[in-house]
Amino acid sequence: MKEWIKRAEDSKLAMRIALALIFIWGVVMSFLVPPWQTPDEYAHLKMIGESLGNEEMANQMLYDMELDLTRIMNQYDEKVDRSQWQESFIKAPGYSRGECMPKSISLSVIKHMPAASGVVLGLLLHLPTFWTLELGELFSLIFYVSVCGLALKLMPAKKEVLLLFMALPMSVQQASSLNYDAVLLPLCFLFIAYLFYLRCEKDRLGWKEAGTTLLLLALVVYIKLPYLFLGLLVFLLPKEKIHLQCPWGEINGEAIRKWRLPVGIGLVLFTGVGLYAVRSNFWVNLVSGMILEWKQSLRLFWLTAVFCKRHILISSVGKFGWMESGVSLGFVFVTYLWVLVLAVCKQGKEEKTLVKRKSGAYLWIVFLILCVFIALSMVNHTIKVSQFGGEDANVTYDVREMIYNLPYIGGLQGRYFLPFLPLPFLTLPEKIRIGSCRTWLPVIYMIIAMAVSFTVLYQRYWM
């Protein structure tokens, strides 16, 4: 008993230290990567301004502090002008509150709520543009660490696996930026942890649990549609735990077993009618076109894996700024080996089992479906960039014809897979006992990852 208590206390301490390291490293990274050099930072600031009814906010802040954006962007040999960078710390803001403050608010602010809150606070205080952007990044980071902490608290087992993906250098860069990934990533991790919490810890699932699940999924989908398929994880919940009180009776495991066939047929028919009704929708056309040309679609997926595998692998762990500086492929292999060790090793004699063989196979299916739809989401990007000169091209095209003109699916980044990348590792059985060191392996990895990514970023921007 005493040994179990000590192990639990060690685990909590390790988790707290790991979350503190994520926060500290996020703050450091927000300074190491100069303003405007994280992916699409200006575009995301513009989204924040538009969601607050002020389309000029981003322009005003960029004009006030451009910091050699175009000179450095995608130019590896160009470094930060340190005197200019230091001057931006104390430079009086060239914007006025009237030019940059919110005029209204729209629902889309949800995508950037933490960053938007920090930016607006900076504008209210009339801080230099540099510190206004830093406040936005700091609020994003606080949100990320807080939600990740809640996810780790809920996760019934394999917490260390989930933690390692939260702590990847790529995840931390996104967490300490204005990008909506700082909201999307922790919400996806929380959704996964909450579903496993319901599966393994809760004895009764009622409307409160159903409502929380739907709310989390709705937030994820509103931020980025392809992650809708994370919702398939709800089918891992044991039917016998479901007790939903309705005016006509209770929806429980017995009722679900009794009515699953007619309800299933009804859902298929309803989905078919719904898809027909929105047949002109872009996503419906894209998916249906790829399905009808399934041979060419499979060929595209294969060619993408062949030509882009190195880029996708590195950018899932750490490819920074405008994707021109990244960790080595060797460090990527070390990272995934580390995750694998955490996934198959256990600390005590017994560990909680998240999934058995059948459920594990289902998790793999969900993972593959998500991979396919993330890839599909970039097909339109590739067609417009390669065939029409840019993603903003206002054109219509025949998907079935255009996919034959593509050499592979371009624009894919490993970070797009991070929200669901833990899933296959959660299916692995814990067979090897390694003792209490398992608890501290994520912390050790983080210290190594911080040193590696610091070296990469310092060489890229400051040396």
Globally, the shape reads globular
Q: N-to-C SSE series?
A: HHHHHHHHHHHHEEHHHEEHEHHHHEH
- Per DSSP, the total helix count is 21
Poorly predicted runs of 5 or more residues = none
Strands side by side in the biggest sheet: 1-2
Please report the total strand number as a whole number: 6
Short structural description:
This protein is mainly alpha-helical.
Q: What report would you give on this structure?
A:
- It is a single chain.
- Helix 2 crosses helix 3.
- The chain is mainly alpha-helical and 463 residues long.
- The chain is 64% helix and 3% strand.
- The strands form three sheets. The protein has a two-stranded antiparallel ribbon.
- It has helices spanning 2-32, 41-51, 57-64, 69-72, 82-90, 97-100, 113-124, 129-154, 159-166, 169-175, 181-200, 207-223, 253-277, 282-292, 294-317, 329-344, 357-377, 379-388, 399-402, 423-426, 437-461; strands spanning 243-246, 249-252, 319-320, 325-326, 345-346, 432-433.
- It is globular.
- The model has no long low-confidence stretch (mean pLDDT 89).
Write the layout of secondary structure elements.
Elements lengths: L1 H31 L8 H11 L5 H8 L4 H4 L9 H9 L6 H4 L12 H12 L4 H26 L4 H8 L2 H7 L5 H20 L6 H17 L19 E4 L2 E4 H25 L4 H11 L1 H24 L1 E2 L4 E2 L2 H16 E2 L10 H21 L1 H10 L10 H4 L20 H4 L5 E2 L3 H25 L2
Parallel strand pairs: 5-6
Antiparallel strand pairs: 1-2, 3-4
Helix pairs in contact: 1-8, 1-21, 2-3, 7-8, 8-11, 9-16, 9-21, 11-12, 16-21
